[in-house]
Amino acid sequence: MGNRSLLISYAHPDDESFGLGAAVPKWIDDGVDVYLICATDGDAGSVPAHMQGQYPSIAALRQSELDCARKVLKFKDVYQLDYKDSGMANSRTSRDPNSLWHSWTHDSDRVIEAVADAMRQARPQVVVTFNRYGGYGHPDHIAIQRATTRAFHRLNENSNASDARPQKLYYTSYPKSTVWMRILNARLRGQDPRRMGRNHDVDVYKILENIEPVHARIPIAKYHDIWERASRCHASQGGGRFGRRGRLMRRLLYSYQGFTRVYPVPGHDRVDEDDLFAGVEL
Model confidence over 49-77: pLDDT tens digits? Predict the structure, then answer.
């Protein structure tokens, strides 16, 4: 019997830890080989003043943080596509010819093939990426989501019968309750939920509007400590220690990780899986 293999296709150093830092150790405990695509170098990320100058560049700092998270989460391998971080929509960095968003909008086939090549090497049965809105609308998240989806279908359509084709494709999902809590918390603090984040360019209402149906939920409550350790690796992006209240809220709100099944296409919109490998042929 072959090994079970799963590939996460994400955009930046930190996406893997902040988003799936509890799900990855759960899969590994289940005997799954977990691989990661990190599409950009993260060099458009903001870095606190006290951390500046420690590395030759922001990209080098973000690489060191990814190396830390890789060890904590125990990825089988990490495929780095080496695009530049695009930053948010309409920013100067999004127009850089070497950025992921510019590359996607001007030569999408090259990006798709880079993702497909990583899939050929990892040979996953299951592929996971962002939802269609890229979680919170980040151009790089949307670009890698689209490239991953097309690469998945390309391999299924063009592979020889003897090739290992990816069998299932999932998008990650936010719990609606946590998004509503973020909106409420913003209102209580006098903040505008449509202008959140460091640069006030995150619209939480749009996050809510773009949440997709959940078809699978996996239990992650016992892996919150590893999630916190992996998040701490990305200190430059705000990954730090959670206080007692923060840990309690996480345990209340994030006992499960939800996923939207994209392929095979579900015939209904309800949770019917607690294992992404259900029905997979090894």
Answer: 999 999 999 999 999 999 999 999 999 99
Closest CA to 48 of 225, 173, 198: 198
With 0-12 / 13-18 / 19 or more C-beta atoms within 10 angstroms meaning exposed / middle / buried, residue 154 is middle
Q: How far apart are CA 219 and CA 274, in angstroms?
A: 8
Q: Which position has the token pair 């149906």? A: 213
Which DSSP category does 2 fall into? P
For the question of whether the overall pTM of this predicted structure is more than 0.90, the answer is: yes
C-alpha 9/C-alpha 17 separation (Å) is 13
Q: Which of 172, 170, 175 is nearest to 278 (CA)?
A: 170
Nearest to 96 by CA among 84, 88, 81: 84
> Which domains, from first to last, does the chain contain?
4-174+212-263 (3.40.50.10320), 175-210 (no CATH)
Whether the bond into 193 is cis, omega within 30 of 0: no
Report which residue type is found at 257.
Q
DSSP string, 160-228: -TTS----EEEEEE--HHHHHHHHHHHHHTT--TTSBTTTT-B-HHHHHHT-----EEEE-GGGHHHHH
Q: Could you tell me which of 220, 125, 213 has the C-alpha nearest to residue 173?
A: 213
Cα separation of 14 and 211, whole Å? 21
